[in-house]
């Protein structure tokens, strides 16, 4: 007789196991099966003539036994045994972590192996990459059925743990038992939520950029999951309106006004943490926002204070030069913060002032005319031929003065019932054919919008101007006087005679009577 398989068999729990007992040389053998210590067979027996089959379907932990097949033929008995050794290692371990892994907090890794038999031969290892975190054996944990075995390990999660593999290795080591596999493993990559951290802004091509060139600011941060990025400019309330894609802010054509401090704020919605980074951007440009102002005005009165201010912006710093140009003469003026002050303006300060703004990227100039208004000064009055003339002569009065704007002049006679203003031509007044009535005091008023000055001129007209061509008019005048005088004498004789008669004389009555 023989038992197949013979001697020793290794079976995996859950599979089907058949033990066959057969014999030769006996026509009608009798078969029987039993276990050591008379445990239940845990299977079904089928006899067919010269062989008998014990089928265990499925094999369970209770089938771990020595099975004895007995054959009786013609009162002769023979026995053979087979040892059934069992194991159960059906699946890879299952590895899990806590729901949310946050850097800086405690993370727990759990590894389970299901339906293991015999569990007392099981070893579980937890590894991070190649480093063993934890190991556990279940020696002495004897059981007659399959079990689920678990191992857990907790550790403080670090940023560098993100993406690393945690592996659970299960080993079922039974000496002398031949089965595969004896080792199973499962790996899991750690998804560690962290950050944002180590945030900074990368400026391309750099913090210094030329006006008109493109500029890109990239907000670099370490965060899992990826952080939300918000851009803003220092001292501006609203977010930046430039083109923003993900964590990159783009300025296609940088302008001088784009200079300033840019801030990126990153937020991790899982860790609920926020971090900020900033960068100072300087857009280099030729002089900008150039101004040339004159305070209080570009037109001032003599003696007033006036300040000329030159301002500009630009990077690199703008050099400001203020010059005064008078004809071909150029004078460089010393300024303080672009300001030049004239405490008491004089006419010599009037002229063209020019501000030149320069840096290595360009230059620009502005100019202004400063007008200093001066009242009439240094008045000179000349009277031709003299202030004392004879009737019939012409008198010329010439006036010259120093003023800005040019002065106006008025000549008028004092103590006139009707004010007479004489016309002026280029500062010259002319009195034609003067008479004694022209004698008197004259006022010469020289004025402009700033002030005035008055000069007094005394004119005296005496005698007559005698000339040969004036004899004939004198004869005519004498004749006229004679013609008038004769009638007057006749009247006087007549009146005299009447007076003798009346004994009195009244010139008034006589004149009235005559009339």
3D structure, described in words:
- Its main location: membrane.
- One of its GO terms (molecular function) is integrin binding.
- InterPro entries: ICAM_VCAM, ICAM_VCAM_N, Ig-like_dom, Ig-like_dom_sf, Ig-like_fold, Ig_C2-set, Ig_I-set, Ig_sub.
- One of its GO terms (biological process) is cell-cell adhesion.
- The structure is a single chain.
- The protein is mostly beta strands.
- It folds into 5 domains: 86 residues, Immunoglobulin-like (Sandwich), CATH 2.60.40.10; 96 residues, Sandwich (Immunoglobulin-like), CATH 2.60.40; 92 residues, Immunoglobulin-like (Sandwich), CATH 2.60.40.10; 90 residues, Immunoglobulins (Immunoglobulin-like, Sandwich); 38 residues.
- The chain is built from 2 helices and 37 strands.
- It is rod-shaped and about 205 Å long.
Write a compact overview of the structure shown:
Residues 1-85, 196-280, 287-373, 376-460 form the Ig-like domain. This protein has helices at residues 471-502, 507-514; strands at 2-4, 7-12, 17-22, 30-35, 44-48, 51-56, 65-73, 76-87, 94-97, 106-116, 122-128, 131-137, 147-156, 165-172, 183-189, 194-204, 208-210, 215-224, 228-233, 243-245, 248-251, 260-268, 273-295, 299-301, 306-315, 319-326, 329-333, 339-342, 351-359, 362-384, 388-391, 395-404, 408-413, 421-422, 428-431, 440-447, 452-464.
Mean pLDDT level = 86
For the record, the CATH class of the largest domain is Mainly Beta
How would you sum up the global shape?
rod-shaped
**Which sheet architecture does the biggest sheet show?**
7 strands, mixed
Taking all Cα atoms into account, the compactness measure Rg is 67 Å
Number of domains: 5
- The residue ranges in which pLDDT falls below 50 over 5 or more consecutive positions are 470-515
- State the helix count: 2
The proportion of residues forming helix, as a percent range, comes to: under 10%
Q: Say what the CATH topology of the largest domain is.
A: Immunoglobulin-like
Helices and strands: which structural class? mainly beta
